[in-house]
Design goal:
Elements: E1 9-12, E2 21-33, H1 35-38, E3 44-45, E4 63-64, E5 69-81, H2 87-94, H3 103-132, H4 137-151, H5 156-173, H6 184-187, H7 224-231
Antiparallel strand pairs: 1-5, 2-3, 2-4, 2-5
Keywords: Membrane, Transmembrane, Transmembrane helix
Organism: Microbacterium elymi
Subcellular location: Cell membrane
Amino acid sequence: MSGIVPGDVVILSVGAVVPADLRLIATTGLECDEGIVTGESSAVAKSTNAVAGAAALGDLTCCALMGTVVQAGSGTGLVVATGGDTEFGRIALGLDVQEPVTEFQRGLGQFSTFLLIIAVILTSSIFVAALLLGRPLIDSLLFSLAIAVGITPQLLPAVVSASLAAGSRRLARQKVLVKRVVCIEDLGDLDLLVTDKTGTLTTGSIRFDRALPIEGEDAERLSPRTARHRCGPPL
């Protein structure tokens, strides 16, 4: 909604997409799905009570953020930010930033620069040597250029692309999808990968799998049946 400006009053109802960042001034059981902004899978209850201090984005219960969806209740809010000034807009603008160069790309660029320097030095040396030996100027130039073309790895891009494609296929067999193929080389150097995207990479639920004994504890006492009795019913 391009006609909305800061200071406007917006009425929210079930199923509505919040058109701007709003400071809520009235709510009736209002709940918003903020997964598109915070990544959380569960809806957040909203109220008009001000949030003290520098609260995190997911703790702004007195605000309705642009792009979120009203799942329950209704409310009224005052527009405080629109477009690129909203939290959702900042995320969208951040996607236009050029992606950082990986170590693999940096190393490949350094290797290409090294080959270029070698080609220039070798071509110049051969050209000068041919002239000193009394060869015609045109023949010397053509011969040195032929040498330069011969030492240029013309199939290097194809070899690199084929290698990265093979790596992506191996990862796909392990149920891993890589958006940027050039990141495969860096991904292979990882020892530990920690992620936190509740509801996106996880199911948003907790269940008991198994118990791991620690020093001084008997593994039999930590069996699923015993743990279920001590901790209550399974989640």
